[in-house]
Amino acid sequence: MTKFSRSGPIAAAALCALTAGAASAQDFTSANGDTVHFYGQLNLGYLGFDDGQDTDNAFGNVGNSTSRLGFTLDHDADIGAVRFRFETGLGLGSTGSFSQSGDDPEVIDWNRRQLRKLEVVLTNDYGVFSVGQGSMATDGAGGLDDSGTTLAGTKSFGDVAGSYLFRNADGTLSSLSVSDVFHNTDGSRRMRVRYDTPEYYGFTVGAAYGREVLAEDNDNDYYDAAVNWAGDVGDFKIKASVGANWVDQADDAGTEKTGVASATIMHASGVNLTLAGGGDFNSSGDWEYAKLGYTTASWTQVGETSVAVEYLETDDYGVEGARGEAWGLLLTQKIKPLNAEAYVGYRHYDVSAPGASFQDAQSLLIGSRWSF
């Protein structure tokens, strides 16, 4: 069975708009030197998912880098540089929310969960102090990736096709989804207070405490910390991060503990390597991700071309004893005259679990992002 989502019309119109031309983000500076910067992006694409028996087709917002609008207000104060940031998703139906069940997301469904950032950030000689809705210290700690192919694919497989279900060997749909099996322990955004130290020989340390205020019935307390390093070693540019998360569950239900780490290495030749992984300290769940890529500006005249091959392995996510293996081929082409990128990502999924047998699945993502 092949179907097309209700987001098709808006996605098609938006993708056509990408070819109409590029706009530039605008900066406005007041007489006292305060600067307002407006920005945004539209990232839409086609997703085809083959569960081994049927193929499902969808058009929508691509969660690897969701469509958004935002602005910053910068002010130089006596205590340091102060920035206010507001950023929201557009509420467009996401490819990660489609599935074979037919319960597709609305074309546009903006709600408070779309609020990404509403924060005040103070930067001075003592570090960076952040208050409000925004990134916890480990948000992105497992996602460092300089391959140039993150639009086509990252370690967060659920962002692209997370709601699709794997099909049992007998042809029936299981209750196990892509995001159930291909899980990761990266941090997130919360209403939080956060502190990051000044850089010292390439190192910074961050810590945060937050609450989930955008979802109902969540009274958990969230804590995390991360150590980051970035620097050059000969012809190599290296970034690395390692972090830990603690979630104190409401009603004295215990504390969830997870760890996460990643590193990305770019050689002057354009060859790059990304490694990431993490796990649950309370259980045996763990995941490992690797990506080998190449970036060059010599293949086209419109911008850099990046290609990569990726591999993700997970254990004990979704159901006890489950094992997920997936590999992918990724391509991203920058289109500088339009301030845009076009990308393609193919993935193959293999899942096993005690007492169950699943058919292999495949997905194909084709999309474009326009930024301003």
Automatic annotation (TrEMBL):
<feature type="signal peptide">
    <location>
        <begin position="1"/>
        <end position="25"/>
    </location>
</feature>
<protein>
    <submittedName>
        <fullName>Porin</fullName>
    </submittedName>
</protein>
<keyword id="KW-0732">Signal</keyword>
<dbReference type="Pfam" id="PF13609">
    <property type="entry name" value="Porin_4"/>
</dbReference>
<dbReference type="InterPro" id="IPR033900">
    <property type="entry name" value="Gram_neg_porin_domain"/>
</dbReference>
<dbReference type="InterPro" id="IPR023614">
    <property type="entry name" value="Porin_dom_sf"/>
</dbReference>
<feature type="domain" description="Porin">
    <location>
        <begin position="11"/>
        <end position="352"/>
    </location>
</feature>
